[in-house]
Specification:
The protein has two domains: 169 residues, 3-Layer(aba) Sandwich (D-Maltodextrin-Binding Protein, domain 2); 129 residues, Periplasmic binding protein-like II (D-Maltodextrin-Binding Protein, domain 2), CATH 3.40.190.10. Helix content is 44%, strand content 19%. Helix 2 runs antiparallel to helix 11 and helix 5 crosses helix 12.
């Protein structure tokens, strides 16, 4: 056999292999999903990520035809679970409950995390979360004005909790302090990171920290039970989940309204377009699901399911906004 014949034989074999792989890939896409799907929540139990993932997992099987199992992979402010999904097979069986912190704040703040904000298949934003700043009912602060006065009088002595370094909660408090005129806002309070918004809220309930500014879904039950006193909410209008809490706009600080949490469903990069279309189609059906809307609203969140292009624009804008914020607050971690 001549070298030219060998070369042509190799090319033919390679082409045949690619054709087989392509047909297998098409068959897998056509059959998707044929087994249970794992939805990774990158923060701990009880927080916005955990509750949004379990609410979605309770209804999504009705539209995909397979169970959706929630797995909490916590650590590094949501980075651990997000990195796991970014490196998973793009077959649609490992998805991520994306959060504002792990997908926009951390990539904007941390230069050494193992993914960029757009290293995913963005399947759809699913909800918005008003942010509430609250303190334990046992604490003496009756209003945001009183709290800010206390911080100014005790620089570096008071504390706040977050869902981890690089989470939206981590940025929220320094931003609020800055806009409300507190000198040296990055260091005016001690930052105590926890493994998720649920744990951060629990720390505030127990009085272990003086303040938590987090998604309303993580605080609703504590406020209803009288354990937390809401001092401010970031929506333009007051909300039923914290009726007594004035809006940031009412307090004279409309710029704080940039603090709005969100959840989305992401997949690993390079997912098959047909699988992507199936999941996005299912999310659009969930958008009209009465049970899901009811559960989401009961948690104090706002149902907000976007299509693919709208999700990409939303996330791009979010990343741009937080990139600017962390620079202004001198919070970039090299």
């Amino acid at each position: 056999m001549t070298s030219n014949t060998k070369f042509m034989s190799t090319v033919a074999t390679g082409a045949a292999a690619l054709a087989v792989m392509g047909s297998v890939s098409m068959a897998m896409a056509a059959d998707y999903p044929s087994k249970p799907i794992t939805l990774v929540a990158p923060y701990g139990a009880g927080g916005a990520s955990d509750m949004a993932s379990r609410t979605m997992a309770s209804v999504l099987p009705s539209y995909l035809g397979q169970p959706v199992m929630v797995v909490n992979r916590t650590g590094a402010g949501g980075v651990t679970g997000s990195a796991y999904v970014s490196k998973s097979k793009p077959d649609g069986y490992t998805l991520l409950l994306a959060r504002i912190g792990s997908q926009t704040v951390s990539p904007a703040m941390k230069k050494n995390i193992p993914y960029k904000y757009d290293d995913f298949t963005m399947l759809g934003v699913i909800e918005l979360n008003p942010v509430i700043c609250a303190t334990a009912s046992s604490k003496p602060y009756k209003s945001m004005k009183e709290f800010i006065a206390a911080v100014k009088a005790n620089p570096g002595k008071m504390s706040f909790s977050s869902a981890g370094v690089g989470s939206m909660l981590h940025v929220a408090v320094p931003l609020v302090l800055k806009l409300m005129g507190v000198p040296n806002p990055k260091d005016a309070m001690n930052h105590i990171p926890y493994k998720g918004g649920g744990a951060a809220a629990t720390a505030a309930v127990g009085g272990h920290v003086d303040l938590v500014c987090t998604n309303s879904s993580a605080l609703t039950s504590h406020i209803a039970g009288g354990k937390l006193r809401p001092l401010m909410i970031t929506t333009k209008e007051r909300q039923a989940v914290a009726k007594e809490a004035p809006t940031a706009r009412e307090l004279g600080f409309p710029e704080v309204e940039v603090l709005v949490g969100w959840s989305g469903i992401y997949g690993p990069p390079n997912m098959d377009p047909k699988i992507t279309a199936k999941i996005r189609g299912a999310l659009q059906k969930v958008k009209k699901d009465k049970a899901w809307n009811k559960f989401t609203k009961a948690l104090g969140s706002v149902p907000y399911i976007l299509d693919g292009p709208s999700t990409k624009k939303f996330v791009d804008d979010q990343f741009g906004a937080f990139s600017t914020l962390v620079k202004e607050l001198d919070m970039i971690i090299e």
